[in-house]
Amino acid sequence: MIQSTHSNIYTKLKIYKKVKHERSHLTHVLNHVTHKAIRWCTPSIDLTFAQVKNPYASDTSISHESLGYPSDPSGIFKKIYDHAANAYGADHTLFSVNGTTGSNFMVLRALSKQIPNLRVLSERNVHRSIVAACEDYGINLLFLEPNINQEHQLFLPNTEKEIYEGIAKTKPQVLLLVNPTYEGMSLNLKKIISTVKKNYPELIIFVDEAWGAHLHFSDKLPLCAMDAGADICVQSTHKQGGSLQQTGMIHWKEGRINNDLLLESYRSLGTSSPSYILLASLDAAREVMEKRGREKLEHMLMIAKRFSDEISNINGFKVFSTNYLKENYPSIHERDETKIIVDVSGTGLNGYQVANILEKKYKIIVEECNIKTILFLVPFRATLKDVKNTIDALSEIAQRVKRNKKIVECNFKIPTNIPRILELNEVTKLLWNQIEKVPLTDATGRIAAEHITPFPPGIPITIKGEEFTREIVDYYLKLKNYHNVHIAARDKSMESVWVVK
Ligand SMILES: Cc1ncc(COP(=O)(O)O)c(C=O)c1O
């Protein structure tokens, strides 16, 4: 018999039937937390979607030849991809089992082969997979200056003017828009795409729509990339589109994208043994969204509205309404209201503390927390009972801290105007002996030889080749004081950083 150990995923998760005498740690813990918790976070699973009932018994592989090949695509796979393209408003679709992370690599690899010396102009709030793929494929990645609400540490969409001026100045062959943002803010995608296409007919528009797999199915949500006329987009269907973790889709329109190169990338970078269970969950999500997506989203938006109205009535909590955001930040054209941003600073607690109490005391999981805010994501499975229980918990938290409340302030800024000293490509070519590790406190003025991504905001703040300015060093020093912030860097403690010699 296999002895269960602390690191056994299956015991901690308890996903599957427990075999007598065998207990895995992860199976156990996951069962425990997921069954009782209220989850205002991804994945947005709905248990009424079709599902593979017994994943262990149903798992199969490409040896099952009559099914066809998922990565080539043929047989049943070709059929489900074509069906999805139709459902999501695309001409072509591929399924990913490595999230949008994998899809970004596939798309950028194909584009780098289609266009020599590729220059991509992007909004700054990119996922780290974009930076890594550009680094690996020798793509010159250029950024628009970010728009940031520093008080709440929110990355906002770029303005139309910034986008048009950026294109005129840098003359890219690909424009990359990250839309909607993590918090569901969307720019005027249709207008921007049609203006850009009119002025630059050759420019390819690529949208990282990781947070928008549900958008196509409701006219109460921001317009999605395919409907707005983008050439290609990537979606994390597992986030808000109803499929299992890891899954995503690549959608594109016939025309500017070289189909052969994209399929070649798909074959080269995708595993040759994708989980058919995950692919089936994408197909099931497609089916429900196509048939009942509108009604499901209507229900979620009703829950979101009730939830945000009730949070607004609790002293100490302030919800960012769509009207407030649009009035104060004109680059926001539309908002996905299934995302509820709450300023908790009036309770005297910071966002990390509120999230921590919610999870530890009430088993309520929020999507994200920050210094002054918490973010609730309304998933398909949310109910009015979840709203009630969460409102009760928030009211209790507000009551408990009322007496000594002092509004939490955010006393540092996310650095902007970061000088790029060396191109990404140049730093990538440096050998191990041409870079060195120095204490963070000595890094001011040095050139970064690593990418650094704090979570939140989950956006690479330092990219290879950029300068460690005093402002950036100070930012990391302050961030280190918040023990809930996870910093993805070579030295996670951020005592030291890697720089060019
Ligand atoms: C904008 C953006 N792109 C890509 C990704 C990566 O997506 P995935 O987790 O599906 O790999 C994320 C993840 O949060 C994201 O926010």
List the helices and strands and how they pair.
Blueprint: H1 9-13, H2 25-36, E1 38-40, H3 55-58, H4 75-87, E2 92-96, H5 99-114, E3 119-122, H6 128-136, E4 140-143, E5 147-149, E6 154-156, H7 160-170, E7 174-178, E8 185-186, H8 189-199, E9 204-208, H9 225-228, E10 232-235, H10 237-240, E11 248-252, H11 259-269, H12 276-312, E12 318-319, H13 322-328, E13 334-335, E14 339-343, H14 351-362, E15 364-366, E16 368-369, E17 373-377, H15 384-401, H16 424-428, E18 435-439, E19 453-455, H17 470-479, E20 486-488, E21 496-500
Helix pairs in contact: 4-12, 5-6, 5-11, 12-15, 14-15
Bound molecules: pyridoxal-5'-phosphate.
The site of pyridoxal-5'-phosphate (PLP) has 11 residues, from helix 5.
Distance between the termini: 53 Å
Outline type = globular
Helix % is: 25-40%
Low-confidence blocks of residues: 1-6
Strand order of the largest sheet: 2-11-10-9-7-3-4
Q: Estimate what percentage of residues fall within beta strands.
A: 15-25%
**Number of beta-strand segments:** 21
Q: What count of structural domains?
A: 4
Molecules bound to protein: pyridoxal-5'-phosphate
CATH hierarchy: architecture of the largest domain: 3-Layer(aba) Sandwich
CATH homologous superfamily descriptor of the largest domain: Type I PLP-dependent aspartate aminotransferase-like (Major domain)
Provide the CATH top-level class of the largest domain: Alpha Beta
Mean pLDDT: 92
- Rg to the nearest angstrom? 23 Å
